[in-house]
Specification:
By secondary structure, the chain is α+β, with helices and mostly antiparallel strands. It is 12% helix and 15% strand. The chain has one helix and three strands; from the N terminus they run αβββ. It has a three-stranded mixed beta sheet. The longest helix has 11 residues, at 13-23. The termini are far apart.
């Protein structure tokens, strides 16, 4: 179910801190590290490299304008994809 329109976007405290430091131009690191996957992608993160924590590793993401408003967790999958094994064909005699 979608979030209500009257509610604002959710940003955790660490994301707020990174937004504030980007606006002051004092935070010029190559990657922005995000641990809270439930936070939304802010507008000021356009064209930046972001590292999203997946539990054991980080996933690198190049932030584009169309990612704005989505949650960070939507781009870092934590589940391993499952592929159904193929059945082996029996040889004809």
């Amino acid at each position: 179910m979608a979030r209500s329109r009257w509610k604002l976007l959710y940003f955790s405290n660490s994301v707020w801190k990174k937004i504030f430091l980007i606006k002051k131009r004092s935070f010029k690191r190559y990657y922005k590290t995000i641990y809270e996957r439930s936070s939304n992608v802010p507008k000021c993160f356009k064209f930046l490299y972001i590292r999203i924590h997946k539990g054991n590793v980080f996933r690198k993401l190049w932030s584009m304008p169309y990612l704005e408003g989505f949650k960070f967790g939507e781009f870092a999958f934590t589940r391993k994809p499952y592929h159904f094994p193929l059945k082996k064909k029996k040889a004809k005699k």
